[in-house]
């Protein structure tokens, strides 16, 4: 089955009760049993729910995995991955990553005795310098949020295989429409399904997808034992979102390219971060591992500071000033004070997240309206 068919049919069956084409929202916490243990595969909705199961099967299908797991948020999904580890274990993580992931690692899991090494992974060889006998996980986000760095998944997978370490990839920015990390050697794919998979800014949800059945068992155990699951209504919404992922992503990519090029040629713009540019440091890797460059763009204007960046994002009309990304509507954000405020200033500035940086999630509106909006806001 090709990707554009998988988004609609992958892992899906018509509902056995009445043939409903979309899975009903099974708004139930529990299931009748004829005798203790005598049930139809579902006994309690923290453990399993038919609507969530349909979504989890869709996750597995679109990422070319075998097992999908849905969580109450992207961070709940990351939390489940780190719970595979024990005190004394070490993680090598990219240093340019979503601020909430950094906060979870440093403010929660470091207190449980897990050590994190945050490093730039643009040069994959550097990763091996941080691997020792305690290293159990490599955490990769690519493209990175918000600097749009590209990390070579295949090269990092070779290191993880050599040392028998798990490799997890946060595929939120690219989505499986553009990049399929399991095919490139990753063990775990993670999503903030809140973003492109849901696609309509109406749900908070997380996803994990794996191929290996032993790893899946461990993660299903954590999902049930820790209980950070999503409800059936949200499962239905994300499943509906996935059905248009391919056509939304096509337009996100087209609009993203047009805006990246517009900004690059703008006399008031200092720098545009977008992996589709030939002069992007890892453009060749992006070309090899992605099927397009997406709709996420960061930029700084010439001579700008905190206040002038804030003024631009406040002046935008079609780009709503808001946290999050990946919905049909365009959003603008100021990472230093919003998504990445939880990273100390000196740490975030090392990776380029300066006070003047603006991040755009380019939506699927008419491109002329979006460019006109940027024009009036930048001046
Ligand atoms: C790349 C990335 N990973 C993870 C998350 C966390 O996901 P959630 O907000 O669904 O918990 C986000 C949220 O912005 C994100 O952008």
Q: How does the SSE layout of this entry go?
A:
Elements: H1 3-9, H2 50-62, E1 67-71, H3 74-82, E2 90-94, H4 99-109, E3 115-119, H5 125-128, E4 135-141, H6 153-162, E5 166-170, H7 175-178, E6 188-192, E7 206-210, H8 213-226, H9 232-242, H10 245-264, E8 269-273, H11 283-289, E9 296-301, H12 306-315, E10 320-321, E11 331-333, H13 345-350, E12 358-361, H14 367-378
Parallel strand pairs: 2-3, 2-4, 4-5, 5-6, 10-11
Antiparallel strand pairs: 1-7, 6-7, 8-9, 9-12, 11-12
Helix pairs in contact: 2-9, 3-4
Description:
This protein is an alpha/beta fold and 379 residues long. The protein folds into two domains: 9-242, 3-Layer(aba) Sandwich (Aspartate Aminotransferase, domain 2), CATH 3.40.640.10; 246-378, Aspartate Aminotransferase, domain 1. Helix content is 36%, strand content 15%. It has 14 helices and twelve strands. It has helices at 3-9, 50-62, 74-82, 99-109, 125-128, 153-162, 175-178, 213-226, 232-242, 245-264, 283-289, 306-315, 345-350, 367-378; strands at 67-71, 90-94, 115-119, 135-141, 166-170, 188-192, 206-210, 269-273, 296-301, 320-321, 331-333, 358-361. The strands form two sheets. A seven-stranded mixed β-sheet has the order 1-7-6-5-4-2-3, with helices on both faces. Strands 8-9-12-11-10 form a five-stranded mixed β-sheet, covered by helices on one side. Helix 4 (99-109) links the parallel strand 2 and strand 3 (115-119). The protein is globular and about 75 Å long. 49% of the residues are buried. The mean pLDDT is 97. Pyridoxal-5'-phosphate (PLP) binds at residues 73-75, 98, 100-101, 141, 145, 170, 172-173, 192, 194, 204, 206, 324.
């Amino acid at each position: 089955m090709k990707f554009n068919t998988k988004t609609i049919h992958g892992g899906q069956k018509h509902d056995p009760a009445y043939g409903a084409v979309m899975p009903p929202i099974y708004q139930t916490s529990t299931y009748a049993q004829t005798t203790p243990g005598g049930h139809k595969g579902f006994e309690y909705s923290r453990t399993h729910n038919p609507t969530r199961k349909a979504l989890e099967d869709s996750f597995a299908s679109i990422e070319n995995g075998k097992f999908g797991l849905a969580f109450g948020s992207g961070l709940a999904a990351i939390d489940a991955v780190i719970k595979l580890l024990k005190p004394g274990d070490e993680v090598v993580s990219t240093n340019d990553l979503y601020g909430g992931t950094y906060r979870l690692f440093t403010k929660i899991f470091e207190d449980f005795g897990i050590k994190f090494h945050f490093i730039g992974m643009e040069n994959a060889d550097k990763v091996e310098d941080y691997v020792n006998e305690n290293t159990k996980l490599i955490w990769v986000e690519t493209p990175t949020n918000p600097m749009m760095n590209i990390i070579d998944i295949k090269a990092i997978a070779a290191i993880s295989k050599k040392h028998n370490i798990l490799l997890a990839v946060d595929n939120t920015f690219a989505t499986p429409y553009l990049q399929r990390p399991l095919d490139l050697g990753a063990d775990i794919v993670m999503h903030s399904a809140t973003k492109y998979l849901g696609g309509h800014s109406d749900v908070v949800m997380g996803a994990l997808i794996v191929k290996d059945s032993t790893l899946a068992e461990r993660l299903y155990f954590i999902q049930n034992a820790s209980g950070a699951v999503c409800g059936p209504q949200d499962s239905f919404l994300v499943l509906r979102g996935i059905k248009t992922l391919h056509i939304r992503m096509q337009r996100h990519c087209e609009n993203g390219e047009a805006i990246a090029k517009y900004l690059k040629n703008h006399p008031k713009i200092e720098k545009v971060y977008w992996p589709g540019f030939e002069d992007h440091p890892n453009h060749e890797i992006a070309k090899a591992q992605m099927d397009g460059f997406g709709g996420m763009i960061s930029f700084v204007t010439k001579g700008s500071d905190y206040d002038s960046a804030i003024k631009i994002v406040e002046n935008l009309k079609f780009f709503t000033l808001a946290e999050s990304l990946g919905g049909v509507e365009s959003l603008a954000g100021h990472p230093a004070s919003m998504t990445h405020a939880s990273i100390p200033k000196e740490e975030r500035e090392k990776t380029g997240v300066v006070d003047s940086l603006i991040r755009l999630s380019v939506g699927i509106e008419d491109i002329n309206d979006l460019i006109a909006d940027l024009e009036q806001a930048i001046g």
